[in-house]
Write a structure and sequence with these properties.
The protein is an alpha+beta fold and about 140 residues long. Helix content is about 15%, strand content about 40%. The protein contains two helices and eleven strands; from the N terminus they run ββββββββββααβ. A six-stranded mixed sheet has the order 1-2-3-10-5-8. A three-stranded antiparallel sheet has the order 7-6-9, with no helix packed on it. A two-stranded antiparallel sheet has the order 4-11. A hairpin with a 6-residue loop joins strand 2 and strand 3. The radius of gyration is 15 Å and the shape is globular.
């Protein structure tokens, strides 16, 4: 993940990067989700909830966003928004990679960075890390 910052951040192409200027309340990331055709969903995040809103805009391919008990299929050109406090996760149900923009709060982005930086993937350690960032890991 490459974070864009400084006065030039607004003019750069996203192309797999993260727009996270210091002090910003929201973060914009362009990411890719590999597909898992015909199999179990390959979740991009475990089922969780936090107080910040989170939104996806699909550039190519398709994502499925689970919001509470509802699975919402989001094709290219579509968007989904999960309000803070609602349990959610998401995955790519197709065979081809899906490119998307993810809009999230700065605290949620901090959690993602912490998860990627830790070597301890034990469920209890992961649950504690979620709690540290004001989120709840759900089973």
């Amino acid at each position: 993940m490459v974070a864009l910052s400084g006065p030039e951040f607004a003019a750069q192409r996203m192309a797999g990067r993260v727009l996270a200027p210091p002090g910003a309340d929201i973060v914009l990331a362009e990411w890719t989700a590999e597909g898992a055709p015909g199999g179990q969903p390959r979740y991009q995040a475990p089922l969780h909830r936090h107080g910040e809103d989170e939104a996806w805009y699909v550039l190519s391919g398709t994502l499925t966003v689970r919001m509470g008990n509802n699975d919402i299929r989001v094709p290219a050109g579509g968007a989904a928004l999960v309000p803070g406090g609602i349990a959610h996760t998401y995955w790519n149900p197709g065979a081809e990679p899906a490119r998307y923009l993810l809009v999230m709060g700065a605290r949620t982005y901090g959690l993602i960075q912490a998860l990627h930086a830790t070597a301890d993937r034990d469920r209890d350690a992961t649950r504690a890390l979620f709690q540290e960032f004001g989120a709840e890991l759900l089973d």
